[in-house]
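Most newcomers find our protein records easier to grasp once they have seen one. Read left to right, the backbone structure tokens trace the chain's path through space. Once this layout is familiar, the rest of the handout is easier to follow. The record below serves as our worked example for the rest of this section:


***
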Amino acid sequence: MKTMDKNSSKFSKNINQYAPLITIIGLAALGSVATSRYEGFSTSRLMHLFMGMFLLQFAALKLFNVSGFAKGFAKYDLLAMRCRPYGLIYPFLELGLALGYLAGGALWIYIATFILMSFGAIGVIRALVTGLNTNCACLGTTLKVPLSTVAVTENVTMAIMSIFMYINAIT
């Protein structure tokens, strides 16, 4: 009985830690479905809307405190730890991508997303392998979510979605 209580307590703690992230993903998904339904549903448009809304929310949270974001991001991002200006402009890069997706996308947006997200995933994987215990800067400094495989999953999923949209655009 104690083992079950201990496991449910651990699960509850994990869910609570990731509640802000789950909320953002859920809102992006709901907004995407609602908007794509209004526009006439297509998988491609749904993906554009999801990526745009997701990145827009993430950019907004980073923009509340760009300097604080850059400081946290530099703990695990391979380029941000060597080049502070990259950490400072990253929220604006994300904002540009968000607006690009919401406007319908373009080849350069898919390529830029693939590069940023793949590179970001490498930095997170490296940090996790070395045992770095820090918060993920993905939600800026406003919301605290631990750096974990969830961040890797986000980055890899967005990179894969950008590849899908790129292929869809060129075929």
About this structure: The two ends are 57 Å apart (CA to CA).
